[in-house]
Amino acid sequence: MAVQVYGVNHVVIEVDDAQKAVEFYSDVFNLTMLRGGEGAAWCQLGEHQFLAIFEVKELKPDRMKHFGLMVRDAAQVEEVRQKLKKNYGLTFESGGSCDFRDPWGNRIQVVDLHDESLVWLLPYREIQDLGITFSEPTNRQS
Cα torsion at 113, 114, 116, 118 (round to 10°)? Predict the structure, then answer.
């Protein structure tokens, strides 16, 4: 029997302060805390996934490893961008509208449902029902 992958269950990030990371991700992305304690936390991502946050003694940010979060539309991407700049003074990586590193060096990309690279994540019927069309990507820089 061939293995069939249904999606990603969770993403793990490393931080040096789990409580501050929970506060950051709750503020920027309105994530709901599932549980936590003793240097670890779990936050709900979408319907069936979660973000696991683990406290470590030494952070080792990577150049290319990252994960992407999908929000509803360009207005929500812009809301995230503004919050990151205003509340946290974060800058953005070149080449993406909302590609940044959190305060612990974890790289995150925020895209919306109109990003055609994500079309395979949604059932085709849902895309048609939502009236989603794909246009040329906008490249907003900080």
Answer: -10
